[in-house]
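Hi C.,

You asked whether I'd gotten around to modeling the 177-residue construct. I have! Everything is below, sequence then structure, no commentary in between.
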Amino acid sequence: MIRKAAAADLEAVSAIYEAVLDREEATGNRYTNWERGVYPCRATAEKALKEGTLYVETAGEAVVGCANLNQVQPPEYAKIPWTVAARPKEVLVIHTLCIHPDAAGGRWGRRFVAFAEGLAAGKGCKAMRLDTYEGNAPAAAFYPKLGYRLAGETEFFFEGFRREILICFEKDLTQGR
């Protein structure tokens, strides 16, 4: 089940962030641009919770995934050649979607993206957008399988602490309406 997060979920969300970083350190595969204690961290989740945009995916009582789903497009999005003409209020952005590494591969991510698309449709959005670190090969392969188009890449000043190249994806939600 996917639902809006509650304050009681913050510890589990933080634990997912840490588990992703732990897995990257243990395997040597750095797919994220995350920095422990900086982004994402409990404060990241608390901010999204306060804004009412933090969502969690559960299996029974366990939180297995989380994401911040909002309409905030980073300033760098202006450099991307998006193909879906949409006003800011007609775009839903997926931020920091992550599934606990122990639950990865269980179709949780697909369900979360489908949920986000349904949320967007309910808000009258025309497009879904997201960005990810250029080295995130799993995400670069995942989103096109769900109908997302690679829209471009540009340098971001990520969370105000790191300059890096992020790749951006977009999905037209008006197709099939």
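If it helps when you're writing up: The longest helix spans residues 10-27.

Thanks,
B.
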